[in-house]
Amino acid sequence: MIPLARPSLFLGIGTYALSKKSIDLSALAVMIIFGGLIHFWGGWQADVPMLLFFFLGSILSKIKMKLNPDSEQFNARSGPRKGIQVIANALIPTLCLALVYFLPIEKIWPAYFSAIGIHLSDTMATEIGTLKKRRTFHLLSGKPIPQGLSGGVSLAGIWGALLGACLMGLLYFICIGSIHLLFTVILISFLGSLIDSVLGDTFQAKYHCPKGHITEKTFCHGQATILSAGFSWMDNDLVNLLSAVIPISLYFIFLQW
User: Fold this and answer.
1) What percent of the chain has pLDDT over 70?
2) Which DSSP state fits 131?
3) 138-175 pLDDT, tens digit each
4) Which neighbouring-strand residues pair with 212?
5) Which of 32, 173, 196, 217 stands 20 to 30 A from 53 (CA)?
């Protein structure tokens, strides 16, 4: 059995988040397990980017809900984050760290930072893009889309995604002390956020609400919704996971080996 290092750190952070109703009990359990593995396999260098993602995402989410409380009325992600959502964001970075630990190759570190950078970039795109009501559109077609639906982008959101990618690139330089592949971290992080938007727009399940609008919820206003686009098994958590799997896999195929 792999020992978990400093579980009290992640227990304390998770307990605080639980008290603020940012996560539920399942998310707390997952945070402790994945957080312990991340620290055991990567030390403080691995802790810093994950903690930045958690705290920055939480802060921006709180600000958004105060400034634009209607921004999540159509998606199924409202409320405390659940364990499956934490897994979708932490699984690929943790697997990358396992490679760092068992195959101590320097070029694997950019994959870890990029895997977190993808989720940070996507989170900043979502939160900054919905801080206030603004035009949201399909990334591929440019057609308008209701704000808050997965797959929609805005100019502010795109700038937010780029900012998140640059922050992770800077953090990679600070923590690892190498400029080598820094721009690769930025590129993969930004690319992953775009892939998230494309997958959310094209394949994620969208439902028709009895009240007449499109939503990601299977129940709306106390009534079952009807699938109108995408696949019923493709939810936001799977989109988040795939948005990291695809670019990180390409990194290992074309750049690493």
Assistant:
1) 88
2) S
3) 777 777 777 767 777 888 889 999 999 999 999 999 99
4) none
5) 217
Give every CB contact of residue 246 below 8 A, 6+ residues apart in sequence. Answer: 192, 195
CA proximity to 194, closest of 122, 133, 128, 96:
122
Which CA distances in Å does 220 have to 11, 130, 211?
35, 21, 8
Q: Residue 50 class from Cβ within 10 Å (0-12 exposed, 13-18 middle, 19+ buried)?
A: buried
Spatial distance between the Cα atoms of 161 and 121, rounded to a whole number of angstroms: 4
Q: Note whether 34 and 97 are within 8 A (CB).
A: no
Q: Residue 102: in which H helix or E strand, if any? A: helix 83-102
Q: Would you say 225 and 217 are in contact if contact means Cβ atoms under 8 Å apart?
A: yes
* C-alpha distances in Å from residue 109, one per residue of 81, 164, 190, 239, 253: 27, 18, 17, 23, 15
Query: What SS3 state is found at 97?
Result: helix
What is the C-alpha end-to-end distance of the chain, expressed in Å? 30
Instruction: For residues 142 and 152, give the distance between their C-alpha atoms in angstroms, rounded to a whole number.
Output: 9
Strand order in the sheet with 206-208: 214-215, 206-208, 226-229
Report residues of the chain scoring pLDDT below 70: 1-11, 68-79, 148, 212, 255-257
Strands 226-229 and 206-208: antiparallel
Q: How far is CA 234 from CA 16, 33, 105, in A?
A: 31, 26, 34
Beta-carbon neighbour count of residue 219 at 10 Å?
A: 12
**Residues 192, 243: contact at Cβ < 8 Å?**
yes
Residues 6+ apart with CB under 8 A from 149: 74, 75, 136, 206, 214, 215, 216
